[in-house]
Design goal:
Order of helices and strands: HHHHHHHHHHHHHHHHHHHHHHHHHHHHHH
Distance between the termini: 116 Å
Strand content: under 5%
Mean pLDDT: 86
Radius of gyration: 39 Å
Number of helices: 30
Helix content: 55-70%
Shape: elongated
Structural class: mainly alpha
């Protein structure tokens, strides 16, 4: 009797489980007879034969057999049914993929696929290196799925389910030609806009080099655009676009200008962007994102009729002026003012080497003459006051502001240099810009104080009269050169303020006026753009940079020699600290 009860209980349990009566969720096979899957005679010796999923799911079975992924699956699990169970689980408990508890639901697909793809030994080496499951979970899709969002894209949405194919297969959902369609299942508006863009049209015409969704956004690295890790983040978009637009191969094939990226990087926008300024315009700011169109298209953001509005987003009321020039660089071959800026640049590039070389040779001759003579030629007594306390204060303000201006200014032009790294660590472009502007303010204050000192103090007026140019300042340099070369017997007697000091002083005055004027135009750029032609800004930028180069080199070659390396004052003229030439007592 007990044996009969056990047999009855086991039989009932099998029947109930077959029909899903003990499942809290609806089994997709609920209502099927056992022999619907287990084909053959029920009473056959040895029990029911193995289930055959393909008997019902013939179309799916064919997809599996004909796909590389399915073939690899069946090679491992030997039979189609075993392959099915690997993903769908126990056939008596298979739930609809729309059920959150299903192994094939969007929420659970990463774990299901991860049964193989999380283990390097189970997948090809090139896939193992990419860590597909781990990388997926750090993407915007993976994070959203992990939070239980059933609408976020999971494995099967992109790769397919039973017909998974490698990206090189044109029939694959993730092939270059199918990516837009695949992503467009969720991102319909973006896909539609992209399809009308210059990139989308090129892709439609079969151009393999044309970028598609994953070329810009990544695959298993997709992040929100606001995140630093995103390839379309404001700070990274230029690098992303450069992947194609700096390619010589692509440029040559499609007749594109090869210098587009470099000319942008050389512009103020590009330099500031390289230094971490997220407010400055990048590629997408002007050209758009999914709606990139050629400049000849009336709907393009950079069409002549629209560029005023595009630039006006950052430069109110200045857009009309900007249409007259070239945005990518101030020295493009076309555009209003470019020729003027080019001429001035050429003049500086000739003038700077000549002036610095002349300074160096002049000082070298002086150094060699003094070094060989081994006697001082200075007639100034060591206790004589060379600089008053007021003058030392002015000199200190000048040194501080000049060093900060030069360092922060060149750090913009050479943003990727190792010596510009401190600014990156201290806040990037905003910190660099603020330091440069504060230093400029200090420089201007010192300049005004110096003017007040020269004209409104007795001591200053005396200094001013002494520093004014004289006729002998034209002949003394030649006499000194002849003496240093051994072509003149006697060394010329120089006044307290000779051509050496006067040349440096008046060069500083002239250079200061130029730097303040051009710096003001660049600082108040929106005002300048609405008031002056674009070439004024272009020329100002060229002059501001190259004048800074000239000033810095002049300080190093001319000033440093006379206060540091001149044998008469070596190792240093202490007047800037003590007011006197001699070293202070210890």
């Amino acid at each position: 009797m007990r044996l009969r009860n056990k047999i009855f209980f086991v039989t009932a349990l099998s029947i109930f489980s077959c029909f899903g009566f003990f499942s809290a969720h609806a089994n997709v096979h609920e209502g099927l007879e056992c022999n619907a899957c287990h084909l053959g005679e029920k009473a056959k010796e040895g029990g029911m034969p193995p289930a055959n999923c393909v008997s019902c799911h013939e179309e799916v079975g064919n997809l599996l057999k004909n796909s590389p992924h399915g073939q690899a699956f069946m090679a491992r699990f030997k039979t189609p049914t075993a392959s099915c169970l690997a993903c769908h689980g126990d056939p008596h408990e298979i739930l609809s993929h729309q059920d959150p508890n299903s192994k094939t639901s969007r929420v659970n697909q990463p774990a299901t696929c991860g049964a193989c793809h999380e283990h390097p030994s189970e997948i090809p080496p090139h896939l193992a290196k990419r860590m597909p499951i781990k990388s997926y979970f750090i993407t915007v899709h993976g994070e959203t799925v992990r939070k239980g969002n059933l609408n976020a894209a999971s494995c099967a949405d992109c790769h397919g389910s039973h017909d998974i194919r490698p990206p090189g297969d044109p029939a694959s959902r993730i092939s270059h030609g199918q990516i837009v369609t695949t992503c467009g299942q969720c991102h319909q508006e973006e896909a539609k806009t992209f399809g009308s863009s210059v990139h989308g049209l090129a892709l439609t015409h079969g151009m393999r080099e044309a970028p598609t969704c994953t070329d810009c956004h990544g695959e298993h690295t997709i992040r929100f655009p606001e995140e630093i890790a995103s390839s379309v983040w404001k700070g990274a978009i230029t690098k992303t676009c450069s992947g194609c637009h700096s390619s010589e191969k692509i440029a040559a094939k499609f007749g594109l200008p090869i210098d587009r990226v470099q000319t942008f990087l050389d512009s103020f926008h590009g330099l500031a962007g390289q230094f971490g300024d997220l407010k400055v315009a990048n590629c997408a700011s002007c050209h758009g994102w999914h709606d990139v169109l050629p400049s000849s298209d009336p709907n393009s953001r950079i069409h002549p009729q629209n560029i005023s509005q595009t630039c006006g987003q950052c430069h109110p009321h200045a857009g009309v002026v900007l249409t007259s020039g070239k945005i990518h660089t101030s020295l493009s071959k076309k555009g209003e003012g470019s020729s003027i800026a080019g001429i001035i640049r050429s003049i500086y590039l000739i003038l700077i080497p000549l002036l610095i070389a002349a300074m160096f040779l002049h000082n070298l001759a002086d150094f060699l003459r003094k070094a060989l003579a081994r006697t001082s030629s200075v007639s100034i007594h060591e206790d004589e006051i060379l600089l008053t306390s007021s003058e030392r204060l002015q000199h200190g303000g000048l040194v501080l502001s000049f060093v900060l201006l030069a360092y922060s200014g060149f750090a913009l032009e050479y943003a990727n240099a190792w010596w510009a790294l401190p600014f990156q660590l201290l806040g990037g472009e905003e910190t660099r810009r603020n330091i440069h502007r504060v230093a400029a303010f200090i420089f201007i204050l010192v300049s005004f104080f110096h003017i007040w000192y020269l004209f409104l103090t007795k001591e200053g007026r005396t200094r001013f009269r002494a520093i004014l140019p004289e006729r002998r300042d034209l002949s003394d340099p030649f006499k000194m050169i002849l003496f240093n070369l051994g072509l003149r017997r006697e060394r010329p007697i120089l006044k307290r303020f000779s051509y050496i000091e006067k040349a440096e002083y008046w060069a500083l005055v002239w250079g200061s006026m130029i730097m303040v004027l051009t710096g003001a135009l660049l600082f108040f750029h929106n005002f300048a753009l609405t008031t002056f032609p674009l070439w004024v800004i272009e020329v100002s930028r060229v002059i501001h940079f190259l004048e800074a180069v000239l000033a810095t080199l002049a300080i190093v070659v001319w000033h440093f020699y006379w206060v540091l390396f001149d044998p008469d004052v070596y190792p240093m003229n202490w007047a800037w600290l003590t007011g006197r030439k001699k070293r202070p007592p210890k």
